[in-house]
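User: I'm putting together a small comparison set for a docking exercise, and I want a reference complex before I start. The sequence is below, and the ligand is NAP. Could you produce the 3D structure with the ligand included, as structure tokens?
Assistant: Of course. I'll restate your input first, then give the structure tokens for the complex.
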Amino acid sequence: MERRVEVGVLGATGMVGQQFISFLQGHPWFDVTWLGASERSAGKKYMEAANWTLDGKVPASIAAQTVHEAKPVAGAPKLMFSAMDASVAGEIEQAFAAAGHFIVSNSRNHRMEPDVPLLIPEINADHLGILPAQRKNRGWAGAIVTNPNCSTITLALGLAPLKQFGIKKILLSTMQAISGAGYPGLPSMDIVGNVVPFIKNEEEKMESETQKILGDFADGKIVPLLALVSAHCNRVAVVDGHMIAVSVELEQKPGVAAVAEAMAAYRGVPQEKNLPSAPKQPIHVMTEENRPQPRKDAMLENGMAVSVGRIRECPILDYKMIILAHNTIRGAAGAAVLNAELLLAEGLLD
Ligand code: NAP
């Protein structure tokens, strides 16, 4: 693809917004030309408005850009990534979609609405078929596409290859990184040397979003997968990388080797279309007895691949394993960029 596309980032100053800016540096299709945030930041240069928490300096092409208030205005790019605080994202995203923008959002606000795709392009690229209905229902010139919650992306992508065997039950316990709570996140006194066994609304999101993502697009509707999902969510003293201990019950009993093989062989539309941010191999199966680990494996394939290890039989359900992904890359900014690449490759932004 030759053409370049201007993009904006709403919530550009936050943790995920910074990951967008970092992830989009040198992108072969997208140029970040518009930054939006709250009225606290509006009017300031980005380098003054953002408390840059990533390694290195604010990219030179971004540092001197002026941050705008997050309102649709003439001249703002058609394609907008959204990483705004969920308390405000709902209405602002709708206003942009009504004004003709394509919003590719990380926020939870619209994920579970029946006419909004909850997209992981390897799994459910066909769910984009709901967009004409969304635009018609709402009278929008633009549209909203969402990516799942960070721990749900990790789980759903790790388990997607098992859908062919009939997923019946999923029981999981997460070990979630502190970067998943935004900046400044939890007070250090709460998390250093500690585990916090509660993340507000996370268990509910993992349970319902997983069913929607793994569901089918049939007769113009997204029909959720009828699998039972039970989640325990925990915050641990890890900076980046959500790890999940998962047990799964399947209708068929393919055996541990076939489960591992299905995961390693798994490919989807992003790999077929060779999208720029797609990992070559979405799931890396690790055979070492002590992998995956967040510090060693979260950055696999530029942070876009999931790693799965310790696949073994489960005496209660059928199989158990550890699944890991980078929560702010594959679980947030990278996921949304891949969604936008799919929209562009499918001609949906024209
Ligand atoms: P964050 O660090 O707290 O950043 C929030 C962003 O929202 C900032 O840019 C902030 O701008 C902006 N904002 C706040 N009030 C606003 C308003 N009234 N109008 C416009 N912008 C406003 O949060 P985060 O961790 O990046 O998360 C952002 C979103 O992504 C959340 O919805 C979160 O649930 C979701 N998410 C996060 C992760 C993760 O791993 N962190 C993963 C998946 C999804 P100012 O700087 O001007 O206040």
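The pocket of NAP is lined by residues 11-17, 37-38, 40-41, 70, 83-86, 88-89, 106-108, 149-150, 179-180, 182-183, 327-328, 331-332 (CB under 6 Å). The domain at 5-149+333-345 is CATH 3.40.50.720 (Rossmann fold).
User: Thanks, that's exactly what I needed.
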